[in-house]
Amino acid sequence: MRRAMKIQVNPRILSRRRGRGFTLLETSLALVVIGVGVLAFVDAQRSFIENNNWSSRSATGALLANEIRELVRRAPKYDPVVGLSVDAKGVVTGWGAGNEKVVVADYNCLTDFDGKIFGRDGNMPGPISASGTIVPMTDASGVTQVDGNGKPKALEGWAQSVTVEKVDPLNFATTRAKGFYVAPSGNDPGTAVDQYPVRVTVVVTYQGPYDTKPIEVTRLIWIAP
After folding, report:
1. Residue 39 and residue 168: Cα distance in Å, rounded?
2. What pTM was computed for the model?
3. Cα–Cα separations (whole angstroms), residue 163 to 35, 96, 116, 136, 177
4. Which of 7, 70, 196, 204 is the most buried (most CB within 10 A)?
């Protein structure tokens, strides 16, 4: 019978092998793997924050656009007292808010809102709600922020721009001049200057503290026949 060979290993060699640490190459690879993982996590976190901010802004923009639509939902196209007219020289009367209409509560028709910008860097305070009052800033707990005079602070960075245009009744994509009309001819009764539908466009923009220019968030368009 063959005897099994017994190999003896020097205990000092085993001790040196068991006590061996990581080499410089192994440490570098480990750092690379950890660094890539950390960068991926940071990038995912940044994307999440950006998407969350954009989602919140989109919701706010849609709300502000619909506030304007709700505000003017029952308003006539033209001033119910002055109406809309054009004289022989082509001068249009009755389009836009005159000097006698100072605040939103004075506006009584759609064309009064033409060219108005409510909010940031606009020609009117705002943004405004469906009741015509300023939309205030609130903190995380829902408390309204006030200024030094105790008045509510307007929602910062937001603006509502309103444009009202006269359009062709057969093609809403075709705009007409404010004083445009079709005179009667033969059997054609024509179209009076105040019988045209109007197209209302509300553009809601936002400019954050680090933005170089306003960013369009929402655009709402509808036709008032």
Report:
1. 56
2. 0.77
3. 52, 11, 7, 24, 14
4. 204
